[in-house]
Specification:
With 399 residues, the chain is mainly beta. The protein has a single domain, classed as Beta Barrel (Porin), CATH 2.40.160. It contains four helices and 19 strands. The chain has a 14-stranded antiparallel β-barrel with strand order 2-3-4-7-8-9-10-13-14-15-16-17-18-19. Strands 1-12-11 form a three-stranded mixed β-sheet, covered by helices on one side. The protein has a two-stranded antiparallel ribbon with strand order 5-6. The longest helix is centred in the last third of the chain and has 22 residues. The radius of gyration is 32 Å and the shape is elongated.
């Protein structure tokens, strides 16, 4: 296939996503699995969430998102796009040492193209097919800072006739600056361009920064369980296109069972790039996420995923109480407090019931007084010993 036809196919594959810049077949950013594969939860945030942590499904937004994973996590999902294009993914996260290993297999199919040759014959072929393999590690650098990195291998084929491959990488970090606010930054898809014969397609290398804020409070429906509110705001810079993008979203978690999400994104000069809404449902170790996009060109893009957690670590047992000294004041036990947000509680969690600790006064435990003098078990033993000694003295007299 000649380069002009190849350029047409690459441009056609990218029409449903970002704008494409091309100068004599060089320097364009084509549609690929790197730009099409996106977390279901992140899509509902308008594509944001670079500062949201403790969620392994967000590692393609920021590799540091899995740093505090405390259970094996398996995720499978799929996406139907504007033009019948399809995205599928299978990913896993495994706690390892102080952090967690992550890996995934992602697939992108841009659909079929039908074209007529100069002789009037119909020619049909798969427009584009991509495979994206990822492997990474993330862990805490301190109690407030987490960081991670991901290596990516992308194989892409056009029109079932030409293919290209490249290696890229992601780096990211998150910093908790207060109990309710985190900031994050990530460099995504940094690597060599894809080369199809005489054509070159740049990777969607992106620098992204953002913030997330979260609050936990008594559930609106009463009881002792708590609800969670999370706000997300991101900005990114697509280097090949020299274009900026903005993302924002909100999530409300009800009693750790149901999450309702919404968000939007915009591009350069603020033109709309989509509004999305989604839900998340937690049932035991299973978490289901669904997102729908509004304002699609041809269809209504939808995404769904299922995450299963295995072997969640039990919380660390509190230290044993110190030996009480008679007469010393007794401190009442500290009440359980919610973990800091959004560093620890930004994934959809099991309901948490907070039971107030019983209040104890300083005199709740009194020292046991010693037994009165001249009484007790010791005196009884002394009496018995005297009786035995008297008996031994009397026995020789009888003999």
């Amino acid at each position: 296939m000649r380069s002009p036809w190849l350029l047409v196919l690459i441009l056609a594959a990218g029409v449903a996503t970002r704008p494409v810049r091309a100068e004599q077949g060089e320097g364009m950013t084509a549609n690929s699995a790197m730009s099409r594969v996106e977390s279901t939860r992140a899509q509902a945030f308008g594509g944001g969430a670079v500062a949201v942590g403790n969620d392994p499904t967000l590692v393609l937004v920021n590799p540091a998102a899995a740093a505090r994973a405390d259970a094996i996590s398996l995720t499978a999902g799929g996406n139907q796009g504007d033009f019948g294009d399809v995205v599928g993914e299978a990913a896993a996260t495994v706690p390892w040492g102080p952090g967690a290993l992550s890996g995934g297999l992602h697939y992108y199919d841009a659909g079929q193209v039908d074209m007529y040759t100069s002789a009037g014959d119909l020619w049909s072929a798969k427009l584009q097919q991509d495979l994206l393999l990822t492997a990474g590690y993330a862990g805490p650098l301190s109690s407030r800072v987490t960081a991670g990195g991901t290596v990516k291998y992308l194989w892409s084929r056009f029109a079932e006739s030409v293919s290209a491959a490249t290696v890229a990488g992601d780096l990211g970090a998150q910093v908790r600056i207060s109990p309710v606010i985190k900031i994050g930054a990530a460099l995504l898809n940094a690597g060599a361009p894809l080369r199809y014969e005489d054509s070159r397609a740049s990777l969607p290398t992106t620098l992204r920064v953002g913030t997330a804020a979260g609050w936990r409070f008594a559930s609106l429906t009463g009881g002792t369980a708590q609800d969670t509110l999370i706000l997300v705001a991101d900005a990114d810079w697509l280097m090949a296109e020299q274009a900026a993008g903005y993302h924002g979203g909100v999530e409300y978690q009800w009693r750790g069972l149901l999450a309702v999400r919404g968000g939007g994104r915009s591009g350069t000069a603020g033109e709309p790039r989509g509004i999305a809404a989604g839900i998340g449902l937690r049932m035991g170790p299973f978490r289901m996420d669904y997102t729908i996009h509004f304002g699609g060109i041809v269809a209504i893009p939808q995404t769904a995923s299922l995450t299963v957690e295995l072997g969640r670590h039990a919380p660390t047992a509190p230290p044993a109480s110190a030996t009480l000294t008679p007469g010393a004041p007794v401190e009442p036990p500290a009440k359980a407090l919610p973990l800091a947000l959004p560093d620890q509680q930004t994934q959809l969690l099991q309901p948490v019931e907070l039971i107030p600790a019983p209040e104890m006064s300083a005199t709740a435990i009194e020292p046991v007084p010693p037994p009165p003098a001249g009484d007790g078990m010791i005196d009884d033993l002394n009496r018995r010993l005297d009786e035995l000694m008297d008996q031994d003295r009397k026995e020789p007299e009888h003999k």
